Known about the structure:
Protein name: DUF309 domain-containing protein
Distance between the termini: 45 Å
Number of helices: 9
CATH topology of the largest domain: Hyaluronidase domain-like
Order of helices and strands: HHHHHHHHH
Helix content: 55-70%
Largest sheet: none
Number of domains: 2
InterPro entries: DUF309 (IPR005500), TTHA0068_sf (IPR023203)
Structural class: mainly alpha
CATH architecture of the largest domain: Orthogonal Bundle
Pfam families: DUF309 (PF03745)
Strand content: under 5%
Shape: elongated
CATH class of the largest domain: Mainly Alpha
Amino acid sequence: MDDALRVGIAVFNAGDHRAAHEAWEEVWLPLDEGAPDERLLHGLIQYTAAVHHARRRNWSGAGRLAGSARRYLADLNADARGVNVGEVRAYLRRLAADPEFAERRRPLALRVDSDAIDPTDLTFENAASAATLLAAEYDAFEASVVADAVRYARAELDRERSATADAGPTRRPQRRDPGFVGMVFDFAADRDRRSLVYDRLRAHVERRRSTERDASGLFE
């Protein structure tokens, strides 16, 4: 639950409002209807949908979803699961009353434990989840390319952990890391340059795939 919550919040704050719900939906669907976590995720999903429609100037859809999201979040603690639920409710109240308000103000950032996180704040595995759902969200990207990039990045991290096994605690992977690790973070985090990042990522993946094919062919 907590990992999915952080991934969706990070994706939303990076500007991929519609894609954020994909991080929450798989966790939300099996929950008992009306349970606090179910209402939280349901409300956040509808909040992201309301913002998405408002950004597309679908005022009636935005207002309707804002009202629905408020109802799901109404009885939750203002900081349920560490999320700024109270602030979200206040934003939704204004959006429901005046959907065009969204043109005059940026969407309210979602916070967890007081931090408005984005994909660069995630662990590598959570950043990989964000990259995977973004690749599935947009037709311009091949999910298999991003899946292989994540696989190669994990191999890089495994090699690093093996090389530093006796050197104490392992460091946390981050966006400025070289190789596939850094590119996966970039793809998840840099919405404005994502197409350029993807082109670079795809070129590296294709080279690695070619190397793998050449190596496997040696023994056939």
